Amino acid sequence: MTKPVQWNEEWNERIREAVEGLAYGTVQIVVHDGRIVQIERTEKFRYEGAKDSRVSAASSPKPNGTASL
To answer: Alpha-carbon distance 12 to 6, whole Å?
Structure first.
């Protein structure tokens, strides 16, 4: 049988802080034996024109002066 998760205002605040300011990413709440024990935040950064920069980098000269194919 599952236990109800123990939840209080302190965890509400911690979760809010983890989510606050997150543009892209995930927040995971880890529960053990009905208790929240951990909050994991993974933030991703997306850059405009990232696809174009990869093409530019591939065609730019290498440090020894030879170009990439």
So the answer is: 11
Query: Rounded to whole angstroms, how far apart are CA atoms 56 and 69?
Result: 12
| Mean pLDDT, range 20-45, rounded to an integer | 93
Strand residues in 1-69 grouped as ranges (E): 25-32, 35-43
**Site of tokens 């951990």:** 38
Q: 44: which residues sit within 8 A by CB, 6+ positions away? A: 24, 25
CB 26 within 8 A of CB 41: yes
pTM of the model: 0.58
- Coil, helix or strand for 66? coil
